[in-house]
Write the structure tokens for this entry.
Amino acid sequence: MADRRPARAGALRDAITTAHIDALVITSLPNVRYLTGFSGSSALLLVTQRDLHLITDFRYDTQVRDEVGDLAKVRIEAQSLWTGLWNLAAGLTGIEVVGFESAHLLHRDFQRLLAEGTRWQWRPQINLVEALRESKDADEVALIRHAGEIAIRALTKTIKEIRPGLTELNVAGILEHSLRDEGSEEFPFSAIVASGPRAALPHARASSRVIERGDLLLLDFGAQYKGYCSDITRTMVIGPASGEQREIYEIVKHANAVASKSVRAGMKGQDADGLARRYIEERGYGDAFGHSLGHGLGLEVHEAPRLAKTVETLLGKGAVVTIEPGIYRPGWGGVRIEDDVHLAASGPEILTDFTRELLEVA
Amino acid sequence: MADRRPARAGALRDAITTAHIDALVITSLPNVRYLTGFSGSSALLLVTQRDLHLITDFRYDTQVRDEVGDLAKVRIEAQSLWTGLWNLAAGLTGIEVVGFESAHLLHRDFQRLLAEGTRWQWRPQINLVEALRESKDADEVALIRHAGEIAIRALTKTIKEIRPGLTELNVAGILEHSLRDEGSEEFPFSAIVASGPRAALPHARASSRVIERGDLLLLDFGAQYKGYCSDITRTMVIGPASGEQREIYEIVKHANAVASKSVRAGMKGQDADGLARRYIEERGYGDAFGHSLGHGLGLEVHEAPRLAKTVETLLGKGAVVTIEPGIYRPGWGGVRIEDDVHLAASGPEILTDFTRELLEVA
């Protein structure tokens, strides 16, 4: 792969110029990773028109040099990262007005900027790096697709082992074990394993509930590969499906298919959401689809753009988004089918190729 | 168990009075859980002298009522939680000066307080709830112990399956699967599985490195039970240990034992750190113990107090802390042995009862 990092830094420098600031302090770790490749859990990055200055702590001494090379000037700080920044600031000239990431800086650290960073004037900034991250390049799409393939292989293995009598926690264990064996380096979020009436809770985690014949079973999980995330949901039935389960499943399946086929870069977030919502409403289940259609994903499992009723922003060219319509009925259960879709210039490209037919397992 | 929540709210109200504020807005989710029992991922809590007002979104409509009961006045908000807070504020009288959690509020949301929360005057606060959380009651200690037992049973199972030829990711999969089967509801942090020279990286995650005979293998992981975390590290050798591996292991083992036996509530954080550090220094490995001795744990895997060289604060009565000395040599590997210790009035009580002898596995 070509090294995309210099081009990313160049694009950010243009944004810095447009924002009328001399430099930007980056505190979001995914933003640091995007710009430098550094994957550690402790970092501050100062981007000037001339250099990238990366500050981390002694634990990452070896790793930071491996990952970053000579792309950035690295400082290993024994005290706090902020002390490192003030030491750095003392040696830099020509910098007066510095931006910080308002959405990624705690109030406590903001007070620190005002109290200790007195050499510079501070300006809050929003989304300078995130706006660049929304449009994925070919390498990023390939990594998300790879993370999707890990998730799909793990799901294939897991489905073979699901049977009545296991708890949701047991199923989560099988799924996570399979994800690791297939190469997932982290879990982008805690797996949702929701059975029976618990499938009606869109944000259930796994519990000690025992899975029974006749249950709906909803699995929502992801894999991570070289920092990039996938996010997929499938809903199945334990044993033969009832007519009602099948009827609702087919509505969600159709809503997923319509939206995955029709979603495009340049569409408003609310119009993308409407692609699935309109159909579910027409079938009389509008009130039972209580969340938004989807979200961007990449280095984070939730990032720009948002596909939701209230969002007038346009979906960015090359974004990768989830399409995840659902129908939830308290006490009965729920169905959600979620795929990851790349908004390519030629149209939507589904990255999670796993059957959307209703599976009757065990 | 007795319901401890009313007493916690009472203690917080005393702290609110002392801070000369009329109410406190809580944005830290573990703090919300501590005070109300609510475990969802979206919440704002307003604590006044009269009531607890909990705001969450529609996804948690059922769950919040189950978990909170009539302890708090619950509002389900269709828009944003902040809109919910302003709607609530409009109906409250006698509140003028309101605190917010400076360490748990993003600058972006702080700007929101100033722009939209104009009915109230705002005062940053630090650690009002965290200070209460540092001292664990008997129920909390029992839950951490239970989380420790889950971790130990999972480790026992995992050790039986470790053999040369597995990757670190395979071992992480076995370990996480076992944690789920033993009832861990989440993973408090991403497991560290570091073998061979990678054991020298105190914050390595699991990689695709193949484990070989003669390797040191370091496992650092935790379990979670009813919200409470455990955190344990053991280091073993794949096959027979070399003299050098054994020598360094015994130093770390002794440092762990000395500190676990001697740590007390009321000690300065730096003096606790010194219990292990002094011995490691005497043995000539001071430079190779590059991190601090430990940290508190409870609803979060890192919380107050800190056991570190620079910390002059006293360890709180009833705190639960990790004791995790280590020796790391780049290129060679590392050894860390970590336990969870309750600082009871009668002295330290180790909650993670698993052998500290050097295990030669496979």
